[in-house]
Fold:
Amino acid sequence: MPTATRPAVNAGIGTSGITIRPATAADLPAIVALDEKETGLPKCQYWRELFAHFSQKKGGGRAFLVAEAGGEVAGFITGEVRAFEFGSEPCGWVFALHVAPEYREHDIGTRLFETICATFRRAGVAKVRTMLARDNDLVLAFFRSQGMMAGPFIQLEMELE
Structure:
């Protein structure tokens, strides 16, 4: 859908000039660059495929949102409702959330998170989950500040040789 016909979500938030809106294909280079800056890994194909996945099946508790400030992508969030994986009731899952360091004190992460949570609520779920690295103190502190806490599942892993 062309950008001009997409309604902005929470458009014109406050007087800060920050707009939360659905991501477009034109946003992908900025999303890839922001993610690479944070993770140190270039994942162009991953983000293109995820965007295509979200574009093919709109709605239904799925969102890929960007925060735009001064005409540039200042942050993004993506997630969707998943059901019955690992015996879990339907809930919203946040797959990624990144905010450019220069915008971190402007409540952009909170605005993105609140917007995706509203998407999950409209889809009829009452919980949101995410996963993060144990040593990622910044992200852990952010999600805890949003009211999230440890859930009922434990991640296990092993190296495949």
